[in-house]
Design a protein that fits this description.
2 strands; 434 Repressor (Amino-terminal Domain); 143 residues; 2 domains; 7% strand; single chain; mainly alpha; two-stranded antiparallel ribbon; elongated
Length: 143
């Protein structure tokens, strides 16, 4: 995984956004600026600009990225490499929306009863799944 920064978050592995060195250089050149001119327009140190453009600095502070984006007149997102496979946004489950609407109409006491009942159902399902796995491991279930 050359060039990717991976950070472990709990049980998930997450790809961290990467600075688009070529994009920063291209934005500067499109405007006909030198690195020194970008320094004056953004307040970002010239050596840091050079490191960013050459891919030597991969994790600059957010205020640095904001300063560069403002100087270029672009979004901070435009300074990062686009994700190869952005996670699709799942539409909300219609059943959950209905349940949420029903809960809003209930008294706090009734809401607590529903929550207790839901926890009971979840715990019951987990116990059943656990028992199923144990029986499968022992070879006591037919497939």
């Amino acid at each position: 995984m050359a060039g990717k920064t991976i950070q472990k978050t709990g049980e998930r592995m997450q790809e961290q956004p990467r600075i688009d060195a070529a994009q920063i250089r291209a934005l500067r050149r499109q405007r006909g600026w030198t690195q020194k001119e970008l320094l004056f327009k953004s307040g970002v140190d010239q050596s840091l600009i050079s490191d960013l453009e050459n891919g030597k600095k991969v994790g600059p502070r957010i205020d640095t990225m904001v300063a560069l984006a403002r100087a270029f007149g672009v979004s901070v997102d435009d300074l990062f490499v686009p994700r190869a496979n952005p996670m699709p946004v799942q539409p909300p489950d219609p059943q959950l929306i209905r349940i949420q609407a029903l809960l809003k109409k209930m008294t706090p006491e009734d809401q607590e009863l529903v929550i207790t009942f839901a926890r009971f159902i979840i715990a019951h399902r987990r116990r059943a799944e656990y028992s199923q796995r144990k029986l499968e491991k022992r070879g006591l279930l037919e497939e």
